[in-house]
Amino acid sequence: MRLFLIACLAVLWFAAPARAGLTFCNDTAMRATVAIGYKGDEGWTSEGWWEVLAGECTTVLGGDLPLTHYYWRATTGDEDFPAEDYYFCSSDDVFTIVGDTNCEVRGYTREPFSEIVVGSATDVTVRMTGAAVSEPVAAPAPAPEPQPAEAGVDLDAVSQLLQGTWYNVSDDDFVMTISGTVIEDSYAGYKAGLAMFELAETCDGADGAGPVMLVNYPDVPLLCWIILELDAETLVYIPANRDKPIRMDRGL
Known about the structure:
Organism: Roseovarius indicus
Helix content: under 10%
Signal peptide: 1-20
Strand content: over 45%
Radius of gyration: 21 Å
Number of helices: 1
Largest sheet: 8 strands, antiparallel, barrel
Distance between the termini: 31 Å
CATH topology of the largest domain: Immunoglobulin-like
Keywords: Signal
Number of domains: 2
Protein name: Putative integral membrane protein
Structural class: mainly beta
Shape: elongated
InterPro entries: DUF1036 (IPR009380)
C-alpha cells in the first residue's frame, strides 16, 4: 500500500536571522527527505538527499543565497509531496546530477520539483505541511536479471525488434523513437535528445551480460544499455553500473 500526500503548503519565510541559507522545516508527523535544484556553474544541477525529521528543520545550503531561484522536491520514501512542473533528474540514492535532460538514458528518473523564488533575499525557510490518504497500488513486476551474452547472438534480429516508438512505463510522457541506428527522445511532446547507437554482444561494465546498446549522446560519455528483455511489445534495459532497470512498452 502506498500513501500519497494530497495537500502540501510550502510557506516561505524570508530573512530569518536564526538560519542563514536555505532551510526546510517539516511540520508533518512523518520523516521526510529533500532534494534541491538550481542553475550552477556547469548548468542545471540537482542534489539530494537531506533528512528533515518530523517537527524539525534542516539547513541544506548555508550562508547567503547567491541565486534568485531554487527548486525542491520532498518525499517520505513511500510518499511524494505534490510538486510543480519544474523537472530535474533524480535518484533514489544520494546524488549530485549535472544536467536536467536525458535523465532516463543516464540511469536516473525525471521528477517534478517546486519553485522557490528568492528574489533579493539571502536566506529562506520553507515550511512543509500536508495531509495524507492511502491508496492501493499494484506492486510492479520484478525486472529480469542480466543474463550472460549468447555467443553469436543475431544482432540484426535485435535491431529489427528495437525499431519503432517506445513509451516509458513509469512516465508515459517520456517517449523514445528508434529509427535505424538513431534514437530520438521526447518528453510531453517536446524533443529532449538525439543519439546514435550500435549493438554489441556485451560491453565494459556489463560483466559479460548482453546483448547491449552502445549509445552516444552529444556531450555525454558513451552509454552501455544492457537489454534484459525484448519482444514485439516490451523493452527492458538497464544502464551498465546502475541498479534500476527501465521498462518501455511499444507505442500503437
